[in-house]
Specification:
Nucleotidyltransferase, domain 5
């Protein structure tokens, strides 16, 4: 079974995930942008992906250029990030339900207490897998 990586690039931090083509999340992490190439290379060694799906956000071109220089064999496909942050917040709360006083507030009024960029990466990969592997 093939694996696919996904990246939600950002100025200071990036969301990163690796999924198999059935949509199972094998790895997800928020990583420091300054360690982008090292982190992606380490994950590639562990999970063996040859394709990376990247969101088209603000720093997308810079991240793509850095990864292409460091890993020319990696196939990078840039995709639309539309509404992924909102979707990632919902996914975050499903994965990590609120505890304590947070349970009393509607989720729509809350901001997750930690970055959700890794959930965005999972969403980007999931969209790609649905479109190209499960038509």
């Amino acid at each position: 079974m093939e694996t696919i990586a996904a990246l939600d690039p950002g100025r200071d931090k990036c969301g990163f995930a690796v999924l198999d083509t059935e949509g199972s999340v094998l790895f997800q992490k928020v990583l420091e942008t300054k360690k982008l190439e090292q982190e992606v290379r380490n994950a590639q060694k562990q999970y063996g992906f040859t394709r990376l799906i990247e969101g088209n956000g603000t720093t997308s071109k810079e991240a793509q250029a850095r990864l292409t220089r460091a890993m020319p064999e990696l196939i990078i496909k840039v995709v639309d990030e539309y509404r992924t942050t909102d979707m990632a917040r919902k996914a975050y709360w499903q994965a990590k339900p609120p505890k304590g006083w947070r349970r009393l507030l509607p989720l729509g009024l809350q901001v997750p207490p930690e970055p959700v960029d890794d959930f965005v990466a999972v969403i980007l990969a999931t969209r790609y897998i649905k479109e190209y592997y499960h038509e």
